[in-house]
Design a protein that fits this description.
The protein has 22 helices and four strands. It is mainly α.
């Protein structure tokens, strides 16, 4: 049996997997960079040259070296293909880039560049904005990669270290950044590399951490844009986006109940409580005993879903008529069913969550974050942020989670035509994967068969004879008015 001391932190990525991550990185970072360099939110802080910058010569011939930044991540992926050091190095670089972009989103900056009428510099100034100056992502990205490669004692660290030095010089000699921008970028890069090393040392699942950070990036960008624009129509869209991303975080939270974020219990529970347990008002210490009991007693009278989740609600693990289905969905959307669940749990003498080290640490971090928001924001912005977070969490988020729960366990034999199991698996399309079944939670049959498998490895658990339902059949699982015909279903990768 594999233990936390023998289990590898990461496996060597495939060529296709590495290329996919590179494309995702380039698309997300490119879109955000365009955004922050063309649509600054808030007052732009102008950064003027310092005494040190006065000594730095402007060298137009260094523009090609400056532009070699665009090759850093592709080169990293090429050199690291098939190597186990690629995921942590890639994670560090992406984290550094993300930190810089979030900084530009909240605190826009602009530099005073040297005047250039012709030549390399004039061309560079035409295609690149002076916005998003500090901290310098040109510096943060290669430095973060170099730090991780150095801690892993890889020879390629020398090349990326030298590349970092070249970029640190050329951001100055092209006039694209000032010394302070370069210094801040260096600090961000060292910080990102150090954090990655700490996660690697704690045997954290970097793939899951990447997705947690991406979900939070989507939420933070949505909140920032909604607050800055101040249009109620955008608030409605923001609520929809935030609800789906909160739901996705709770799927990763579900993975953490099985210690798939980290095999180190404190680290695992701290990270997931920080990510969603505390801000989502459901500490993992509360959910884990109920969820493990659900795995032991799924479909029986002792199943917590039967005892608490659907207590005194229309849903009885089989399709409903129109009136009862509307009552069920509205009850989930309007918090009524959540209150019924809480009342049922209390009536059954449910245990009170005792504060643990991971929970206390995550709570302290969030207390600091909230204190900073109170210090930096006015009352109107605080109330708006609270509404945009807790509104979707307790309404749309609950509805999405409940629909997913209906889809995971229903009546099974005798209720769903052609189905002989209590736990379902689904073939899903991109929209349903985005909203209801993120992170392979649609493979719930496979998850219950082997809960020791992390979300990203669930597709490998599909057997050739595993039945699969189509996502188009979900309405028939919920509503008696939807025709559902029996037919053979061959298992295949969703």
């Amino acid at each position: 049996m594999e233990t936390s001391s023998t289990r590898p932190t990461v496996s060597a990525p495939s060529a296709v997997g590495s290329l996919t991550w590179l494309i995702v990185y380039l698309a997300v970072s490119g879109a955000l960079y365009f955004f922050v360099t063309h649509f600054p939110f808030g007052t732009v802080r102008i950064i003027t040259p310092s005494a040190i910058d006065a000594w730095v010569p402007v060298l137009p011939a260094t523009v090609p070296l400056y532009l070699s930044y665009l090759l850093v991540m592709p080169t990293l992926v090429w050199c690291g293909r098939g190597q186990r050091w690629l995921p942590p190095a890639f994670f560090a670089g992406a984290l550094a880039t993300g930190l810089c972009l979030v900084s530009h989103l909240f605190w826009p900056t602009e530099i005073v560049r040297p005047v250039a009428d012709a030549g390399w510099l004039a061309w560079l100034h035409r295609i690149d904005s002076p916005l998003a100056a500090s901290p310098s992502g040109h510096v943060a990205l290669p430095v973060a990669i170099s730090v991780v490669l150095a801690t892993l004692r890889k020879r390629v660290a020398w090349w990326f270290g030298l590349w970092s030095m070249v970029l640190m010089l050329t951001v100055l000699t092209t006039g694209q950044h000032l010394f302070a921008d370069m210094a801040y970028g260096f600090v961000v890069g060292v910080f990102a590399g150090t954090v990655t090393f700490a996660l690697q040392y704690s045997r954290v699942n970097l793939r899951s951490m990447t997705m947690i950070l991406l979900e939070w990036l989507a939420i933070v960008v949505t909140l920032r844009v909604a607050v800055a624009v101040g249009d109620w129509r955008l608030y409605a869209l923001a609520c929809l986006v935030i609800a789906t991303r909160q739901h996705a975080l709770f799927i990763l939270y579900h993975d953490a109940t099985h210690y798939h974020i980290s095999r180190h219990r404190f680290t695992n529970d701290f990270l997931i409580n920080l990510a969603i347990g505390v801000p989502g008002a459901v500490p993992v210490e509360f959910y884990r005993p109920l969820h493990l009991e659900h795995h032991r007693h799924v479909g029986t009278a002792h199943d917590p879903e039967r005892r608490f989740l659907y207590q005194k609600q229309p849903w009885e693990f089989q399709p409903l008529d129109t009136v009862r289905l509307v009552r069920q969905l509205l009850g989930d959307l309007l918090l009524v069913n959540t209150l019924r669940t809480m009342r049922a749990y209390r009536s059954a003498g449910g245990a009170v969550v005792r504060p643990t080290g991971p929970l206390l640490c995550a709570t302290i971090v969030w207390a600091v974050i909230v204190a900073l928001l109170v210090y930096l924001c006015g009352m109107r912005v605080l109330l708006l942020l609270g509404a945009l977070w807790f509104g979707p969490l307790f309404t749309l988020g609950v509805l999405l989670q409940k629909i997913r729960s209906f889809a995971e366990h229903s009546g099974g034999p005798g209720v769903t035509p052609g189905w002989e199991n209590w736990t379902y698996a689904w073939r899903v399309r991109w929209l349903s994967r985005l909203c209801i079944w993120p992170y392979h939670i649609n493979l719930h049959l496979q998850h219950h068969r082997n809960p020791n498998v992390a979300w990203h490895d669930l597709p490998s658990e599909i057997r050739s004879d595993d039945p699969m339902l189509s996502s188009r059949e979900l309405p028939g699982l919920l509503w008696l008015g939807w025709p559902l015909k029996p037919r053979a279903r061959a298992g295949r990768r969703p």
